[in-house]
Model the fold of this input.
Amino acid sequence: MLKVLKYSFFDLLRSRWTYLYFLFFLVSAATLLYLSSGTSVAVISMMNLEIILIPLVSIMFGTIYYYQNADFNKLLLSLPIKRSKVFLGQYLGIVASLGFSFVLGISIPFIVYGIFYTSYWDDFLYLLIVGVILTTIFLSLSFLIGVNNTNKMKGFGLSILTWLMLAVIYDGIVLFVLFLMEQYPLEKITLILTILNPIDLGRTFIMLQSDQAALLGFTGAVFRNFFGTKTGISVISFVSLLWVGIPLYYNIKKFKMKDF
Amino acid sequence: MLQKRLIYLLFLFIGISVQGYGQKRLEVGKDKAFTSVRKAINNAQPFDTVLIYEGYYKEADIQIDKPLVIEGINYPEIDGSGDENAITVTSDSVTIRGISVVNVSTNYMNDLAAITLIKASYCTLENNRLRNNFFGIFLQRSNFNLIQNNRIEGNSKEDEVSSGNAVHLWYSKNNRILNNETLKHRDGIYLEFADFTTIKGNFSHDQIRYGLHFMFSNNCKYIGNEFENNGAGVAVMFSRNILMRYNHFRRNWGSASYGLLLKEIYDAEVVNNQFTENTIAIYGESATRIKFLNNSFKDNGWGFKLLGSCYDNIVSENNFINNNFDFVTNVEKSSNTISKNYWSEYSGYDLDRNGVGDIPHRPIKLFSVVTQVVPDAIILNQSLFVQLLDLAEKVNPTITSVHIKDPDPVMKPWRLFFKPKSND
Done:
């Protein structure tokens, strides 16, 4: 498995898309730090960018990569390697390479800027963590789409739709639900709805750690109380793990049975 | 001419009588005539001076019932712990200067204070250092006093009940509170039924509740004060004719904080103030006929939150820069006038180059209306969906009020001045 992982990783590192991804984060983080009025503002803007872009790029790139590697997969499967290892190796390879370019891309400007000498260094760490988790989740989803659809066009369509669903439409639905249930106490429902969507979860998590938390008022306080507790942290980790684990488990099962 | 001479003569008489009266200086210290402050005061004649030398005096319940000058040398420390006020003044024309009063205990029955004035007028309290007391300076039915250059530091933790106010005025008129620094009390300066008070150049910070708190106090003015990092900012309630000028409201940041909270206020002027990094810069409830002119609102969560019960206010020539929401209200139409402000969010144009934007600015965002109806929706702040929604609404307003607008927003920020002039 390590061999497949290594191969995947270095194959992707040679790809110019990985460089582009890296450069994008490098340039945007540097520009934000340079142009914005304060570090906290830069962190929030970076979060906005990251929350929207990482899922989109991960899910698209993952799908493309899966289809591209279809022939290579067939070749690998003719060798005496376990199927699950072929799959996991590739998955971890792409997670490692995308994660690597993201982390490096935003770390360089922030560290050069001297984030560790300001009081915002923990915000920056949260940015990194949330980014890496989102990468892992959305790559796992992209492979799910790849495994289940041999038709490339359908696969791409589905991945865009998934992104749109989680990044935009979901919030619309949440808002709709909140309006419908206006008369009831809504803190718990909001909390549950937020935790269920990894993008919302990432956004709220970073917002609560930053200065912006004060704007969230009473609801924010409820959230903060929850996120601050051990139960809160374990629930968040568990949900994130489910988002990675369920598609991955299903994928491996399917991949094992699949008739190539 | 005769009249003038008579006045001179009168002054002469007064001078002589005071001279004859207040000759004595009583010294208090380790190896001085008196070792106890209370004894010195008991032995003093009206208009004498009591000099307290550097040292530690554990004396509570010091009563000053005649006009004296109490002067400390190098801040002698008077420890007022016990169930009494540290110093109580019941006479007019007392001066207390340069002393330090500490450790007046918290009491749930009486409002114990470091220095209490009861029906005492024309007193001066200056250059004192009050530390770790329940209340700092407490005025009851005392008028025309001057409180200046004191530093009043409390010991408040998180609890509003077990801590008192730094400067507390109750039924006291025409007092002046100048250049004090107050911190870590419940309220920095608290006024109740205190008309004609002047509050100038004070620095009130890290209070657990309000930096300044007004109740039922008319015709007051506060000028050039700084309020920073207070639990709930500054509250002005149930008062008329208040002038607020050249103040700086800074970092009153928390889920229930305000820069300035106005409730039941009529005919006030809020001019040349700076509001920086407050959760809600100005919150108005039943605030009526107020002029908000030449203020700067920068990096606040909400710039203005004016409820529907606010009438006939004028919001003009202010700068709104980088606030999360510039302006929020809960009504469709209002009688408030908004004009000639600078809005950093304004996206219009100025074809005739007269400095005024050609299309009106609508400062109310759709999302702020949504959060008025469903406060919990605020958690979607910064979400892509909400940003798209705001954009769509901006292009074609359907839900937000079309009536609340700035018809002539200016293109460049106003150049504002925040330093008080000497004659204010």
